[in-house]
Specification:
alpha/beta; TIM Barrel; FAD/NAD(P)-binding domain; eight-stranded parallel beta barrel; 23 helices; binds NADP nicotinamide-adenine-dinucleotide phosphate; binds iron/sulfur cluster
């Protein structure tokens, strides 16, 4: 009996036995498009070595018009097949199984050549799609089947047919996007004809002994989405057409409901998979916001699914199952669902990586090798940069001492974890603390390291972080002005608040101050009320009116730039923060001049001509006006002639964020 009995038990799909019930969900990493197939193979092989039961690749285009963007990878030539063969060979050599996802993007394809059932433009794409005629539909089906046949040639154990998230197959299913009046539209039987035909033809192309995963949308979260009866009808039809297993899809990409962000409760949608399970004979896979072996095991042990899909957690830790299966679950680097280095990168055309694990997709380039000689290294500052540097250096065999004047490790991560919706940061700090213990780093907490303390070391890394910027707004005596640090550490704040600065921290602080009770992230029912998510068996598409709680305070969130606050937040998560504050009635204003803080409030005006002067009647002003690097120690070391590396916020405060800090720290520590 192991701790994760259900998760670690094998399962057989269409004659292919998987060693456990974890599926590494499809992610577009951008690696294939680099053309460096050694790197692609290394990425997937690392996850196979780490125990993934079934890996699903990033979406491969079946043809040019179906690619997510022009030039998207697919199996178009013999050379492509040979390249993919390198990947499948590497995964098989590591004892893994791998299926290729076939992704036809439909009207989401970022291209003027995109095609769809009807010529209805998506709200998230600038390109109106071309409506396919009969021959065009046949071509799409044939191309998808051909992609499946080529996947077999390339050595894959099967394919995943992407039928959810609002892509091509999903677009046929609902009147939201399918207004056809021929045999491919109208009645549900007609609308589901295309996905069912695709599955049947893909099964023929694969033969009987390959895995066919069908990703089915269980809740569309768009107007005129599928009813639950339709979902079940489709599930049974694709089962009959040859699917081996059904993977869960949640929400279209254009949905205005978050589905995977960190503020989404863990395992938020598993009740849908559980409801599907008894309706079909083939296994079902749960998905979305599953990020620990305990959550995964719980889902399986409760009979809610037969397998569990996790995608981003495999970026954060390629050895997820290897650790879970050997009593080392606490060592799994946690995915905090931030999207900062994965999806935000993908949508900015950058290579995917991971905030917690900068080696993700950089396996062949960022190599942590044993260090030469026994050397003593001092790291000052136990925030994300300092902790990463210390752990990496110790992992290379160096003798590391980590100083921090605080009595606990974590730095600004300890502030982030106070913010509602950022509860995952608790696990991240816990993981760092455990890794520090395990790696043998000597911790000198409660110790302000000075030049003399650092003289005897062979290497010094300064990771002293940042100090909050004081914007120098004139303030009358008696006015209450706090920094974001005071607030997140629990300082009393009045019922009316102005937040000065609308960057990442200004938004975090506004959400913290607006929250009337327990974080909805910890209460699935409250979170669903907040975002207007209904059971799809009660409401078509699972959408209902949102019923957000009223804010705990009256809040103004301000910035000087004459633009909408929040424009620079994360590409895939900024809209969630803006929508959360809007729903709470927070007043977000750009183009503001801060004239004076008085007992009666914050005097402001607007624009260069200082128009519309007014006093915002607030009790408290909270400063979130960015950061300055904390460089006193670095400057003193320089003056004393002591060479050192400066990393994280102490190096560049302008973009203080854990992603850059951790990446830089690991790279510096890898070269000591
Ligand atoms: P930021 O994103 O650079 O925002 C700073 C804000 O302060 C801006 O809205 C800026 O807008 C304003 N500002 C700058 N100088 C000012 C001045 N002299 N007077 C008045 N206002 C001024 O910085 P941040 O919010 O501190 O976040 C830093 C980074 O950390 C971001 O990349 C963010 O994503 C990340 N982050 C970190 C945490 C954390 O807990 N550590 C949390 C969330 C996000 P105007 O210049 O227009 O006024
Ligand atoms: Fe998870 Fe964030 Fe890493 Fe993406 S960047 S895998 S969301 S921890």
């Amino acid at each position: 009996m192991t701790e994760y009995r259900h998760l670690l038990s094998p399962i057989t799909l269409s004659g292919v036995t998987l060693r456990n019930r974890s599926l590494m969900g499809s992610m577009h990493t951008g690696l294939e498009e680099t053309g460096d197939w050694g790197r692609v193979a290394a990425f997937y092989a690392a996850r196979a070595e780490g125990g993934a039961g079934l890996i699903v690749t990033g979406g491969m285009a079946p043809n040019r018009e179906g690619g997510v963007f022009p030039g998207a990878a697919g199996l178009f030539s013999a050379a492509d097949i040979a390249n993919h063969r390198r990947v499948t060979d590497a995964v098989h050599a590591a004892g893994g199984r791998i299926a290729m996802q076939i992704l036809h993007a439909g009207r989401y394809a970022y291209s003027p050549d995109c095609v769809a059932p009807s010529a209805i433009k998506s709200p998230i794409s600038p390109f109106p799609p071309k409506e396919l005629d009969e021959a065009g539909i046949e071509k799409q089906i044939a191309d998808i089947a051909t992609a499946a046949a080529r996947a077999v040639e390339a050595g894959y154990d099967g394919v995943e047919v992407m039928g959810s998230e609002g892509y091509f197959l999903n677009e046929f299913l609902v009147t939201h996007t399918n207004r056809r009046t021929d045999a491919w539209g109208g009645s549900y039987e007609n609308r589901m004809r295309l996905p069912v035909e695709v599955v049947a033809r893909v099964r023929t192309a694969l033969g009987p002994e390959k895995i066919l995963v069908y990703r089915i949308s269980l809740i569309d979260l768009v107007p005129d989405g599928s009813t639950w009866d339709e979902v079940i009808t489709l599930a049974r039809a694709v089962q009959a057409a040859g699917a081996s297993v059904l993977n869960t899809g949640i929400g279209w990409h254009e949905a205005r409901v978050p589905t995977i962000a960190t503020s989404v409760p863990r395992a938020a949608f598993t009740d849908l998979t559980a409801r599907l399970r008894p309706e079909v004979q083939i296994p079902v896979i749960a998905s979305n916001r599953i990020n620990t072996p305990d959550v995964a095991e719980g889902i399986l042990a409760q009979g809610m699914a037969d397998m569990v899909s996790m995608a981003r957690p495999w970026l954060a830790d390629p050895a997820f199952i290897a650790k879970a299966s050997t009593g080392r679950a606490g060592q799994i680097a946690p995915c905090i669902a931030c999207n900062q280095a994965c999806l935000d990168h993908t949508f900015s055309g950058k290579l995917t990586s991971c905030l917690v694990n900068p080696r993700a997709c950089h396996e062949t380039e960022l190599v942590i090798a044993p260090a030469a000689g026994p050397r003593r290294i001092a790291v000052v500052g136990a925030g994300p940069a300092g902790m990463t540097a210390a752990i990496t250096a110790a992992g290379r065999g160096l003798d590391v001492t980590l100083f921090d004047r605080a009595t606990e490790v974590g730095g600004q991560l300890n502030l982030a974890k106070q913010v509602p919706g950022k509860e995952e940061f608790h696990g991240l700090v816990d993981w760092f603390r455990a890794e520090l213990d395990r790696s043998g780093v000597i911790l000198r907490l409660g110790t302000e390291a000075g030049v003399e303390d650092l003289r005897g070391f062979d290497g010094v890394i300064v990771a002293t972080g940042v100090t909050p910027r004081d914007p120098g707004i004139p303030a009358d005596p008696g006015s209450q002005v706090l920094s974001y640090i005071d607030v997140l550490q629990g300082a009393a704040v009045g019922p009316r608040v102005a937040v000065v600065g609308a960057g990442g921290i200004g938004f975090d602080v506004a959400e913290f101050l607006a929250e009337p009770g327990a974080s909805p992230t910890l209460d699935r029912a409250a979170w669903r009320r907040e975002w207007g998510v209904a059971a799809p068996w009660d409401t078509r598409g699972g959408l209902t009116a949102a019923r957000p709680e009223a804010a705990a305070r009256e809040i103004w969130l301000l910035q000087r730039k004459p633009e909408k606050p929040g424009r620079k937040l994360g590409k895939t998560t900024g809209w969630i923060h803006r929508a959360t504050l809007q729903a709470r009635g927070v007043k977000m204003l750009g183009g503001i001049n801060y004239d004076r803080i008085g007992a009666d409030g914050l005097a402001v005006s607007q624009g260069p001509a200082r128009e519309n002067p007014q006093v915002l009647p607030v009790d408290t002003v909270v400063l979130c006006a960015g950061q300055e690097p904390a460089r006193a120690l670095s400057d003193a070391l320089t003056a004393a002639g002591i060479a050192h590396h400066r990393i994280g916020g102490a190096d560049v405060a302008a973009e203080l964020d854990a992603k850059r800090a951790i990446d830089q720290a690991m790279r510096v520590a890898a070269t000591l």
